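[Automated response] Your request has been received and processed.

Submitted sequence:
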Amino acid sequence: MTAASTLDHVVTANVTTEMKSREMCINDLAAVVGKSAKRVTAYLEGRKSWPFSHLVSLAEAFGVNVSDLLRDEVGVAR
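Generated structure:
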């Protein structure tokens, strides 16, 4: 895994927003992506890059499109 990119930070912001709106915790996210809470924490803290397969799993769990997780504040996918 590589260090997080700008896009990873956008994804993390969107994932965090979705988590909060659904009252999910890190353990819930870990169950969705099939990784440990420690690994998910590394994604959320920007120490690891989000794998695309995890974005697909999260989008399905959140009921959104993957592209919604890639959008920045002005709504432009990078």
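Summary generated for your ticket: The chain is about 60% helix and 0% strand. The mean pLDDT is 88.
If you did not submit this request, please reply to this message.
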